[in-house]
Amino acid sequence: MSEPGVFAPMGAPGLDPPVPGGDRRSKILGGGSARTTWIAIVSTLIFFTVAGLLIVRSTGWPQVRQSFFDPEEFAYAFPEILAKFGRNVFIFCVAEVLVLALALLIAVLRSLPGPVFAPLRILAAAYTDIFRGVPTILVIALLGFGMPALQLKGLPNSDVFWAILALTLVYSAYVAEVYRAGIESIHPSQVAAARSLGLTRGQSLRHVVLPQAIRRVIPPLLNDFIGLQKDSALVAFLGYTEALQRARIIQANDFNFTPYVALALIYVFITIPQTRFVDWLIARERTKRHGGAEL
Amino acid sequence: MRKWILTLAAMTLLAAACAEETPPADNGSPSASAEENQTAAECTDEYQADLFAPDTLTIGTGNPAYEPWYGGKSEAGSDWKSGDFTGDPHSGEGYESAFAYALAEEMGFTGDQVDWVSVTFNKSFAPGPKDFDFAMQQISILPKREKAVDFSAGYFDVNQALIANEGSPAIGVTTLAGLKDLKLGAPIGTTSLQAIEELVQPTQEPSAYDDLDLALKDLKNGQLDGVVVDFPTAFYGYADVVVGQFPNIGGEQEQFGLAFETDSSLVECADIAIEAMRDDGRLDDLKSQWLEVDTSVPVFS
To answer: If 0-12 CB within 10 Å is exposed, 13-18 middle and 19+ buried, where does residue A39 land?
Structure first.
């Protein structure tokens, strides 16, 4: 997803769009009054205090703290890992652009009507079946170690190239299915209407079906993009020093797992705003479509 | 003159008295001097309760286990699968396997009482209870690592070497500066990677691999100009040419040690055993028996 909105920090406001008739809803759900708010706060506090104490008082905690939460190690590892995270950003951004294009092509191929296009439909279906079925890390390993071994002239040797290609192949399969769901959600009467206006099949797809379909599937597309961001870490398997590989090198040198915690924090920091944004999109879409008539 | 004789006589008496008094003190409470004379077997006996499994020395090592550290053939039912470049720790062949059985004997175990478990490199230092007494897989003793594990005395002095295949621009290079522009790789968690980063300081970032195997794959594919491995490994046919050996990183002799759980009392026993084996030349014998190296390989300057 290349639009800047993805990275724009989305604040909490707007998460819960105002719902007409909200008073009745809060009465039914039992929310809203000061007393219930207090109960929520107290029960949350008790829960987390007990959970925290259970962890901190456990016999293994001192060792775990030393191995996973060593401040000195964190201070050393965090900037080192962050410096390499730019490479992950490059990988998943390039891959996402390719995924959006390739997946759309596959989805359209798969939705082609008529017996003439049967081979294309079969090809597209086989593609999605295979690449949704094979674990991503295997595709990365097979391409990343296998293709350079062929020593074909003109094919690049770079780990990044093969990693991006592997991620694109795998995620296109998922995203094609998302697109297809969007395309199929558009009522056939719309195509019939477009065709009766004199639009060709291609034109009605391009101007009527796809614009609506894509708008509908933006939240799941974003979810897949977040998945892709996380899977960019699998490139470490090829020996390419991106963020995870840097973390592993430090971890193995120092016998300390704190670098993993540091990398997890980086991921949390970039993915949580995006997941919140997706939630907000879904909520907005729902209110728009149902005119706020939901419970 | 008489005074002299008297003084001498008195001193002799005193010395005799002292000499007689010392042994009972030794037999009584285990004083410091007594523990210094303890054999590894006695030590192990004393700490029997700390063994992972009773009457068994359980050793963790990597799987696959590579030559020249582990050799021999796997028997049916073993977790390890020997191949062209890999062996089985149960075989007693290969430097570390042979060393393990010699060490176990010194600590009072028979060969049958040695048990091997396969552990990943990370698992050997992850916090929490271990399912082995110590890990042995060419683990270099480094100060930062001592926070997570207790190391035994070093049992093997090691340095790093560069291997390459025919046609690589690395061949013929004799200086660290000459390696600067090459694309080098090494397995993760080894000091090989540190040798590249700290000694060569290459212009191209070195690649780090999970496994020696994967690094060699990229070497074969031509994605790497050379792979850095520990010096003995360089001679076991993993690549065509041993280009050169690296000087010690930071000027200190690098050593492999056994990694124990922190505060394990068995470290002491292993130390006694290792020192005994060093003193009577058994460590050197193992080295000459299992490691065929060509020490004339030039050191990068």
So the answer is: exposed
- B187 contact A CB<8A: no
**Digit-coded pLDDT (tens) for A91-118:** 999 999 999 999 999 999 998 888 899 9
3-class DSSP state of A105: helix
Cβ pair B20, B28 in contact under 8 A: no
Bridge partners, B60 (sequence order): B117, B135
> What is the rounded CA–CA span in Å between residue B140 and residue B134?
14
- Do B221 and A149 lie within an 8 Å CB cutoff? yes
Tell if the CB–CB gap between A66 and B220 is shorter than 8 Å: no
pLDDT score of A77 more than 50: yes
Q: Do B127 and A63 touch (CB under 8 A)?
A: yes
Q: Residue B283: what are its φ and ψ, rounded to 5°?
A: -60, -45
Which pLDDT score, from 0 to 100, does residue B33 have?
42
Residue of B nearest to A62 (CA): B127
Q: What is the DSSP string of A238-295?
A: GT--SHHHHHHHHHHHHT--HHHHHHHHHHHHHHHHHHHHHHHHHHHHHHHHHTT---
Q: Tell me which residue has tokens 């009577």.
A: B280
pLDDT of the residue at B214: 87
Q: Which of B223, B224, B249 to probe by mutation at the A interface, max A CB count within 10 Å?
A: B223
Any alpha helices (H) in chain B, and if so which ranges? 2-27, 32-36, 40-46, 95-106, 191-194, 212-221, 266-279, 282-290
Quote the DSSP letter at residue A10: P
**Chain A interface includes B209 (CB < 8 A):** yes
For residue range B81-105, what is the model confidence (pLDDT) as tens digits? 988 889 999 999 999 999 999 999 9
Based on the number of CB atoms within 10 Å of its own CB, is B71 exposed (0-12), middle (13-18) or buried (19 or more)?
buried
User: Distance between the two ends of chain B, CA-based, in angstroms?
Assistant: 69
User: Per DSSP, which regions of chain A are E strands?
Assistant: none
Positions of chain B with pLDDT lower than 70, given as ranges: 1-36
